[in-house]
Amino acid sequence: MRLVLLGPPGVGKGTQAVRLSKRLGVPHISTGDMFREALAKKTALGLSAKEYIDSGKLVPDDITIGLVRDRLENPDCAGGFILDGFPRDVAQAEALEKILEILGVSLDAAIYIGAGSRIVVKRIAGRRVCEGCGATYHISFNPPPEDGKCPKCGGRIYQRVDDRQEAVRERLKVYKALTEPVVDYYKGLGILKVVNGEEDANEVLEAIISMI
Ligand code: ADP
Ligand code: AMP
Questions:
Q1: With 90 as the cut, is the pLDDT of residue 167 above it?
Q2: Alpha-carbon gap, residue 154 to 146, rounded angstroms
Q3: CA-to-CA distance for 29 and 73, rounded, in angstroms?
Q4: Which ligand 2 atom is nearest residue 35's CA?
Q5: 12 CA distance to ligand 1 centroid (A)?
Q6: Which of 56, 59, 195, 170 is nearest to 115 (CA)?
Q7: 27-82: pLDDT as tens digits
Q8: Closest among 77, 111, 118 to 210, alpha carbons compared
Q9: By CB neighbour count within 10 A (0-12 exposed, 13-18 middle, 19+ buried), where does 61 fall?
Q10: Is 52 touching ligand 1 by the criterion CB < 6 Å?
Q11: Is 127 a catalytic residue?
Q12: How far is CA 156 from CA 41, 84, 118, 142, in A?
């Protein structure tokens, strides 16, 4: 199964991607996670992405597309994958089609997870992430332990810089201007599926499973 998850920042793409990856047995590829891991290791990639990420802007396409191309060529993607946070503009979507053509495969579906802006802002504001393994928590809906240590790996749980108010405003603007057109792009290809992301995470998962 080759899937792309679309939707505004904070709607729950990562949350669903983790669950789908377990359920379908294919890797979860999150460009945001890849950038954050690179930054934690202070690699050239991470350091060059940092200023874009912290200010809520997109990392330039040439960097991001190269990163995804290399990842999709990895043998663990031969049986499928779930892309989360990519493509984020139409140029990335077109590049993905070319990469998949060269690999001789195609997407099965692009799943758009939708929710109103009040809900996504609340989800982003309460999001907390583990520095070690990237696990995601929410102060109200899935609270992390009080000691601030991730139960899965013992890593420090923190709030992303780009989840603070100033960057969130910019990310929502970037989403509207650059990423929303990607939804129409997949509609044009005839593979778009739409799911209501306002429900509980388990219900969203079951809705996606029944669609694919
Ligand atoms: P995205 O990957 O789309 O940016 P995340 O998966 O990181 O979004 O989810 C954003 C926040 O909302 C996280 O704190 C997550 O725990 C929480 N969350 C995700 N899905 C739901 C849901 N269906 N109901 C309530 N909270 C959710
Ligand atoms: P995410 O974890 O998906 O919320 O992404 C966090 C940040 O990483 C984004 O705001 C961008 O700065 C950067 N990023 C992630 N994916 C992409 C992408 N496909 N293209 C450009 N920038 C990206």
A1: yes
A2: 13
A3: 12
A4: 8
A5: 4
A6: 195
A7: 999 999 999 999 999 999 999 999 999 999 999 999 999 999 999 999 999 999 99
A8: 111
A9: middle
A10: no
A11: yes
A12: 15, 23, 28, 16
d(CA 166, CA 160): 12
DSSP β-ladder status, 192-196 and 81-84: unpaired
Residue 171 Cβ inside 6 Å of ligand 1? The answer reads: no
Given the residues 2, 19, 123, 171, the one annotated as active site? 171
Q: How do residues 85-122 score in pLDDT, each as one tens digit?
A: 999 999 999 999 999 999 999 999 999 999 999 999 99
Catalytic, out of 57, 122, 160, 164:
160
Residue 159: count of CB within 10 angstroms of its CB:
14
Active site residue 2: no
How far apart CA 178 and CA 15 sit, in angstroms, is 23
Confirm or reject: Cβ of 19 under 6 Å from ligand 1. no
Structure tokens at 185: 């792009």
User: Does residue 175 have its Cβ closer than 6 Å to ligand 2?
Assistant: no
